């Protein structure tokens, strides 16, 4: 199981393999923001167009069923996006001295805290507001907005945040040797 410990901008990310006790570096894939923006607009306008059909159906429990489907779909999307983020062929094993590992751990902890407190706070807020308003107002666009936050939450949870935090602390305290 690979646990992310440090990110260098959008260039590469360091992962720790617990079983092999090794660090690996994966390069980020070149992203096409046009593709993501296009998919977002299609989802947004598509859900707006489908909303008219949805409003006419008025089947009890449909909102809850759609939320459950969204939960599973967002998990699948998050796993796919996580897998597509890194260039798999760029995997290379690394060795660092303990002082360098400590520096990476300190910076990794700072990155983790920003990701947790800022990124997750916004994502959970977007998810909660989107899903809550969807259940109240019955508008599909709100479900899509909630899903945007949910995908980011799933992506964070896929990094094994508790184990990640523990590993970073162990690297910082020089308790793990490579």
Give a structural overview.
This protein has 178 residues and is an alpha+beta fold. The chain has a domain at 32-89 and 112-172. Helix content is 67%, strand content 16%. The protein has helices spanning 33-57, 62-85, 98-137, 140-157, 161-172, and strands at residues 2-8, 12-17, 22-28, 86-94. The chain has a 4-stranded antiparallel β-sheet. β2 and β3 (22-28) form a beta hairpin. α1 (33-57) crosses α4, α3 (98-137) runs antiparallel to α4 (140-157) and α3 packs antiparallel against α5. The protein is elongated. The two termini are 16 Å apart. The mean pLDDT is 86.
Keywords:
single chain; 4-stranded antiparallel beta sheet; elongated; alpha+beta; ABC transporter permease; transmembrane helix; transmembrane; 16% strand; 178 residues
